[in-house]
Design a protein that fits this description.
about 325 residues; alpha/beta; Spo0b-associated Gtp-binding Protein, Chain: A; Rossmann fold; 2 domains; 6-stranded mixed beta sheet; 5-stranded mixed beta sheet; 14 strands; about 20% helix; binds guanosine-5'-triphosphate; binds magnesium ion
């Protein structure tokens, strides 16, 4: 399925129905008074968060949403029916902004959380309301008020606790497959992963937590190189970043340089992101060769006080300690 995480949408709530001008007309009742009913209210437009969908794709295909109009008032004091409200389902983690001002209007993070984005117009009053001692036959009624209309920008930021970052081919997708039931594509070429994946990890006495696997980053990502860092917004809400560095004999470049390069890109993307707790995992331990790359990285992490985990996602080596660390860090962060 296509993954869409940014869309523009135009919404128009229903207009209110017109009030009615009408007079009582019955046999033997000369000059019956006004009896025009009120118009109904126009339908509102709501956005509602649901875990059932995970992309904004549907909205991309329907960029205009309208709610129903209120029915016009009728004679014999009959009120027009209200327009039906329109509820637009969006994935959890959808941020709604005003397209013009960019102001954040709402952040839908909880299941079934709703946001009324456009209010339906009030129905007009019928002429029955305007009768007074001096005006016994009002020949006018109110028009309905127009419903709100606006353009919004919707942005999806996945709600994950742990974000996996690293160069392409570092083993991010392999790790998420080993820890959760997510099954992203894995292959020995860079940029196998083109869209973010989420995996739910269940761990011992802790509650489950969610890991996000995002496409690989490379030097110059901030300037759009590779896939750029369009996907980094999906790790903006995580509690901890796990930085994967390939320490196998097949890996290219110095492991410490590789680590620093990505962290530089993170700083350029957002100073907040780099302030998050970050741990480093040296991956592909099973093919570490003479182990020099592993030692260099371990030494650097020790000097700079990064928590360091040598792992092999294929054999499962080191995963227990890593999980323990991730679970406790996530828990600690959530408690704050
Ligand atoms: N021997 C060995 N190979 C591994 C290990 N982890 C990953 N690999 C291999 O490394 C290659 C890249 O792994 P992926 O998990 O696709 O890497 P990625 O970081 O998701 O890559 P992109 O999606 O391209 O950014 C694949 O051929 C994997 O089979 C490991 O622990 N041991
Ligand atoms: Mg991948």
């Amino acid at each position: 399925m296509q993954f869409i995480d940014q869309v523009k949408v135009h919404i128009k709530a229903g207009d209110g129905g017109r009030g009615c001008v009408s007079f009582r007309r019955e046999k033997y009742v000369p000059r019956g008074g006004p009896n025009g009913g009120d118009g109904g209210r126009g339908g509102h437009i709501f956005f509602q968060a649901t875990g059932d969908i995970n992309t904004l794709l549907d909205i991309k295909y329907q960029q205009l949403y309208r709610a129903e109009q209120g029915q016009h008032g009728m004679g014999k004091d009959m009120h027009g029916r209200n327009g039906k409200d329109l509820i637009i389902p969006v994935p959890l983690g959808t941020l709604i902004r005003d397209f013009e001002t960019n102001e954040i209007l709402c952040d839908l993070t909880e299941e079934r959380q709703e946001f009324m984005a456009a209010r339906g117009g009030r129905g007009g009053l019928g002429n029955a309301h305007f009768k007074s001692a001096t005006r016994q036959a009002p020949r006018f009624a109110q028009p309905g008020e127009p419903g709100d209309e606006m353009t919004l920008a919707l942005e999806l930021k996945l709600l994950a606790d742990v974000g996996l970052i690293g160069l392409p081919n570092a083993g991010k997708s392999t790790l998420i497959s080993a820890l959760s039931s997510a099954r992203p594509k894995i292959a020995d070429y860079p940029f196998t992963t083109l869209v973010p994946n989420l995996g739910v990890v269940k761990f011992a006495e802790y509650k489950s937590f969610v890991i996000a696997d995002i496409p690989g980053l490379i030097e110059g990502a901030h300037a759009g190189t590779g896939l750029g860092f369009q996907f980094l917004r999906h790790v903006e809400r995580t509690s901890v970043l796990l930085h994967l560095v390939d320490i196998s004999e097949m890996a290219e470049g110095d492991p410490v340089d590789n680590l620093k390069k990505i962290n530089k890109e993170l700083t350029l993307f957002s100073p907040d992101l780099i302030k998050k707790p970050q741990a480093v995992a040296g991956t592909k331990l099973d093919i570490k060769g003479d182990g020099k790359r592993l030692d260099t990285l371990a030494q650097y992490c020790n000097d700079t006080q990064y928590d360091f985990f040598p792992i092999c996602a294929v054999t499962g080596k080191g995963l227990k300690d890593l999980l323990q660390y991730l679970a406790t860090t996530v828990e600690k962060h959530k408690g704050r």
